[in-house]
Amino acid sequence: MPHISIRNLSVTYDGAHQALRNVSVDIPDGQITAVIGPSGCGKSTLLRACNRMLDLNDGVTVQGEALIDGVNILDASVDVTQLRKKLGLLSQKPFPLPMSIYDNVAYGPRIHGVKDRRRLDETVERCLRMSSLYQEVKDRLHRPASKLSVGQQQRLCLARALAVEPEVLLGDEPTSALDPQSAQQVEKRLVELKGDYTIVLVTHILRQAKRVADYVIFLYLGELVEHGPAADVFASPKDAKTQAYFSGEVS
User: Fold this and answer.
1) How far apart are CA 24 and CA 22, in angstroms?
2) What percentage of the chain carries pLDDT values higher than 70?
3) 3-state SS assignment for residue 31
4) Which residues, other chains included, contact 192 with Cβ-Cβ below 8 Å and sequence gap of 6+?
5) Pairing label, strands 32-36, 198-202
6) pLDDT in tens, 15-74
7) Nearest Cα residue to 54 out of 46, 199, 188
8) pLDDT tens digits for 132-187?
9) Can you list the alpha helix ranges (DSSP code H) found in 6-100?
10) Three-state SS for 238?
11) Alpha-carbon gap, residue 209 to 152, rounded angstroms
12) Integer Cα distance of 200 and 209 in angstroms
């Protein structure tokens, strides 16, 4: 069974705008799945449904199922804190916590009960190495994270997400605020991590999806139009809407 299975998922905002309409799809394990489509098609809504971030919005109605390891995480009985431990999230813009580089990475493990300093030290170093940041910050771990460049802050947020040992990484256009070199570094890390994590990446950049994706989900006006292995979808899209999007007729 895949980590994530979406079943007849519909999301409506303020009783009027239907952001998603009866979306059903399985997301492959150990791969990068790129969610693509025009602006406003429901890409970020799909991602936010997967870790219950929609709970933070008033006036949102969610129907259907989002199954994580076979459990419908939309059920009211689900422990949201434990759920989010399974799913690390990278946002469009990095949001380092107002504390040191070290404490940013140690924050999640501490919330989940890790108090041993040696274990925290090992976790911080390991996760900073996994995000290709350790060599750049090893001599200033206890300085404010806000002093890092934007690209470094996003890699710090990746390290922070990895520190709680998630099974899934969710990226909501995580390179959109970065310069090309920093974006390339984040892409490279995600590709290297995919063997150990299921990664779902929302992107508005087709070139990026073609570079990193193993699987593609194409949404249009809240509906799932097409999905499949990236090589197949990009080489021979089956639906006219997908073809139009790839050719630039729909943006």
Assistant:
1) 6
2) 99
3) coil
4) none
5) parallel
6) 788 999 999 999 999 999 999 999 889 999 999 998 888 887 788 999 999 998 888 989
7) 46
8) 999 999 999 999 999 999 999 999 999 999 999 899 999 999 998 888 998 999 99
9) 43-50, 80-86
10) coil
11) 22
12) 11
Residue 183 is inside which H or E element, if any? helix 180-193
Cα–Cα dist 183/17, whole Å: 32
Residues 6+ apart with CB under 8 A from 15: 59, 61
CA distance 51 to 149: 28
**Which helix (H) or strand (E) segment is 6 a member of?**
strand 4-13
In angstroms, the CA 110 to CA 181 distance is 32
**Sheet strand arrangement including 215-220:** 87-90, 168-172, 198-202, 32-36, 215-220, 223-229
Closest CA to 120 of 159, 81, 79: 159
Structure tokens at 206: 């087709």
User: What domains, with CATH codes, occur in the chain?
Assistant: 4-246 (3.40.50.300)
Query: CA angle 236-240-244, nearest 5°?
Result: 90
Q: Using the structure block, give the residue that is written with the tokens 């799913």.
A: 87
Query: Cβ contacts of residue 136 below 8 Å, gap of 6+?
Result: 152
pLDDT tens per residue, range 67-82? 988 889 899 899 888 8
In angstroms, the Cα distances linking 218 to 25, 32, 46, 140, 149 are 11, 14, 12, 42, 33
Amino acid at 112: H
> How open is the CA angle 100-198-217, to the nearest 5 degrees?
115
